[in-house]
Amino acid sequence: MNDKLPQTLDGAYDQFSSYEGLRGLVIANARPQTVGNSPGKLASYTSPSVFKSGESGWVAVVKDKSEGYYYLLMFYPSNDDASLYAQTFNKMLETFKFKK
Predict the structure, then answer these.
(1) Domain encompassing residue 76
(2) Band of residue 3 on the pLDDT scale cut at 50, 70, 90
(3) 36: alpha, beta or left, given left = phi > 0 and alpha = psi -120 to 50?
(4) Residues 27-50: pLDDT tens digits?
(5) Count: domains in the chain
(6) Phi and psi for 9 in degrees, rounded to 5?
(7) Which of 90, 39, 42 is nearest to 69 (CA)?
(8) Residue (of 56, 69, 64) closest to 14 by Cα position
(9) Among residues 13, 15, 71, 73, which is most buried (max CB within 10 A)?
């Protein structure tokens, strides 16, 4: 990844998306969402994979309470029903709490 630290949530998302794009992730449909008690940006992705069907999933870029960002990723085989995985990812996001 870039040695320069991102200064904004959008900058962190763009940096993460660019880096992950180098390994084949196609990240799309970004939207703002609070994660825990911090601002975040969520998106979906697709990617080539060891799975015959390919890989799909979600990424979250979340501002912490200091100078940094968290990058979260959850994947599933593209031929599976995404609804169960989406419920799990959303439940996981609900558990995050950030302290300064």
Answers:
(1) 9-91
(2) low
(3) left
(4) 999 999 988 888 999 999 998 888
(5) 1
(6) -60, -45
(7) 39
(8) 69
(9) 13
Helix, strand, or coil (residue 42): strand
Contacts of 89 by beta carbon, 8 Å cutoff, 6+ apart: 58, 74
Q: What is the pTM of this model?
A: 0.81
Residue 90 backbone dihedrals phi, psi, to 5 degrees? -65, -40
Q: Kindly state the tokens that stand for 31.
A: 């939207």
SS3 at position 82? helix
Asked if residue 1 belongs to a domain, the reply is no
Domain contains 87: yes
At 87 the pLDDT is: 86
* Contact call for residues 22 and 29 (beta carbons, < 8 A): no
